[in-house]
Design brief:
The protein is of the alpha/beta class. Helices cover about 30% and strands about 25% of the residues. A nine-stranded mixed β-sheet has the order 2-1-10-9-11-12-13-14-15. Strands 4-3-5-6 form a four-stranded parallel β-sheet, with helices on both faces. A hairpin with a 5-residue loop joins strand 18 and strand 19. The longest helix has 17 residues. The structure holds malonyl-coenzyme A (MLC) and adenosine monophosphate. The site of adenosine monophosphate has 18 residues, from strand 13, strand 18 and strand 19. Malonyl-coenzyme A binds next to helix 8 and strand 13.
Length: about 500
């Protein structure tokens, strides 16, 4: 049997030739039939560009139906899809390019010159463009392409995607995900969330991360459901679509922003079956306020790039505020001490997991991969959790130094390394503090070396072309020295406490 994930999707596509797969923001529709036909033709375009099974295709483009088709085309061609946040600067993208050695790069027309200069003919990589309005050289090639219904024959352990996640060392790691990793997770989610024939998904998440790319798209495709596809979060556009939709997936910021809108009420949401939240902790106050306003209890789930989804609150049964629910079917885990030994139920420890969803390791980093797994194969998530006797999980903290801002991960180390290079900076500590919109916001605390005057705008200005906007500090403060313990380690907890009211 072909282990290619696309084969699984195709086997679930509706037989009705009119059935809608994507609805574009302007209301025009792309049927499942067209999705199947065009992803096949696009896979032909990739093959014609020299992309062979196992080759990486690096993509940094605006979200559009066509960019989703490009993802499906990569699956069909057996290429390894490597999506990048559109906010990344050329400086950040250069690292991914050098690390992944892609055969094909797809970027926006606006970034073409900069991208080509960065690529500089290396690895014999081809360059195509694709824009949010369905133009660009890739679309021109697609217009010339003939029908091609092939789905490359693959083993289910072959790689489908590499998703880069930053790390505590400041160096990004490419998480290698196989077709089976993605298929098993999609099937589990489709089952536990009780997808129904009448379901309609509002898709407003970016499609360069697990949440929007895999969780949302895969569930809809497995169910043959329409996706009301929005290029980005837009409260007005979502509220407009809610009456004819049944499922919304979002990060907590989606829900706090929707709550700011007076139109959000029970009547508007009467048709909605599921509001799903994840990627960052959902505050109990958001959960409660949302229930009061709409009568719906948000279903919170927990996951990560390396493992897709790991736990979920139940569809039927208690959805508790602050808890992320139970392990997904096929996933098991333990809350462990720093030796990997399970601790008593109710005691916090690091969550370790195993299952068909767990990734194949970090791209070209076997040593790093080895340090993140226990000898018995359990993956160390780096999240601190506690588990009740009946297996309900609550995430209580993070063992990794990580900030999650509006659902995007920011690793302080990466920013500290760049700040420390700035003239006049002696040292720095980057922390996350509560933020009403993004959940957490990045704050940089730094100590000057006295060689020249430093200002907040000066520091931010120097980071601008090196760091994606969402990683840039929303505040910079100068201190005469950083608080340290007797071992000399910076006390970030003290800094977090001191600046916790910065945005309130
Ligand atoms: C935008 N900005 C952010 C930001 N998003 N700053 C910090 N954190 C963010 N997440 C910047 C903008 O550049 C802008 O800067 C300013 O903040 C205000 O932007 P905005 O217009 O209000 O932002 P918007 O475009 O509306 O985006 C906010 C958002 C978006 C929350 C809708 O960030 C988003 O879609 N987040 C979802 C992330 C996601 O999909 N995560 C899943 C990861 S997978 P300025 O200065 O120009 O005004 C994963 C696993 C799992 O974690 O479990 O799912
Ligand atoms: P990423 O590496 O972008 O996939 O982010 C994964 C991280 O997001 C996890 O390790 C958690 O720290 C965090 N996360 C995801 N979902 C939740 C959630 N529901 N509650 C708390 N943290 C979450």
């Amino acid at each position: 049997m072909n282990g290619n994930l696309y084969t699984l999707f195709q086997s679930r596509f509706p037989t009705d030739p009119e059935a809608c797969c994507f609805e574009k923001p302007d209301g025009s529709r792309v049927s499942y039939l067209e999705t199947d036909r065009d992803s096949g033709r696009m896979a032909g375009v990739l093959r014609a560009a020299g992309v062979e099974p196992g080759d990486r295709v690096m993509v940094q483009v605006e979200k559009s139906v066509e960019s989703a088709l490009l993802y499906l085309a990569c699956l069909r061609a057996g290429a390894v899809y490597l999506p990048l946040n559109t906010a990344y600067t050329v400086h950040e993208v250069a690292y991914f390019f050098e690390d992944a050695e892609p055969k094909l790069v797809v970027c926006s027309t606006q970034n073409r010159i900069g991208m080509a200069a960065m690529m500089n003919g290396r690895f014999g990589a081809q360059l195509h463009t694709l824009d949010g309005d369905a133009t660009g050289s890739l679309m021109e090639a697609l217009a010339q392409a003939t029908e091609d219904d092939r789905i490359t024959e693959l083993d289910r352990d072959d790689l489908a995607a590499i998703l880069y996640t930053s790390g505590t060392t400041g160096r990004s790691k490419g998480a290698m995900l196989s077709h089976d990793n993605l298929a098993s997770n999609a099937l589990a989610l489709h089952q536990i969330w009780g997808w129904q024939e009448s379901d309609v998904l509002i898709h407003a998440l970016p499609i360069f991360h697990v949440h929007g790319l895999f969780v949302a798209i895969h569930c809809a495709l497995l169910n043959g459901s329409p996706m009301l596809f929005l290029p980005k979060f837009d409260a007005g556009a979502i509220l407009q679509r809610i009456p004819r939709a049944t499922v919304l997936m979002g990060v907590p910021t989606f829900y706090t922003r929707l709550l700011e809108r007076p139109e959000l009420n029970r009547d508007l949401c009467a048709n909605m079956r599921l509001f799903i939240s994840g990627s960052a902790p959902l505050l109990a106050e958001t959960f409660n306020e949302f229930e009061q306003r709409t009568g719906k209890r948000i279903l919170e789930r927990y996951g990560m790039t390396e493992a897709g989804m790991i736990t979920s609150n139940p569809l039927i049964g208690e959805r508790s505020a602050g808890s992320v629910g139970y392990f997904l079917p096929g996933v098991s885990g333990r809350v462990a001490d720093d030796q990997g030994c399970e601790v008593a139920r109710g005691t916090p420890g690091v969550l370790e997991i195993t299952g068909p969803n767990v990734f194949k390791g970090y791209w070209r980093m076997p040593e790093k991969t080895a340090t993140e797994f226990r000898a018995d194969g359990y993956f160390i998530t780096g999240d601190i959790a506690s588990m009740t006797d009946d297996g309900r999980i609550t995430i209580v903290g993070r063992a990794k130094d990580l900030i999650i801002s509006g659902g995007f991960n920011v690793y302080p180390k990466e920013i500290e390394l760049l700040i420390d290079e700035i003239d006049g900076v002696k040292e720095s500590a980057v922390i996350g503090v509560p933020h009403p919109d993004f959940g957490e916001a990045v704050v940089a605390v730094l100590v000057a070396d006295g060689s020249r005057p430093l200002s907040e705008s000066d520091v931010i200005g120097q980071l601008a072309d090196r760091l994606a906007k969402f990683k840039q500090p929303k505040r910079v403060v100068l201190l005469p020295e950083l608080p340290r313990n007797t071992m000399g380690k910076v006390q970030k907890n003290q800094l977090r406490e001191r600046y916790k009211e910065s945005f309130h």
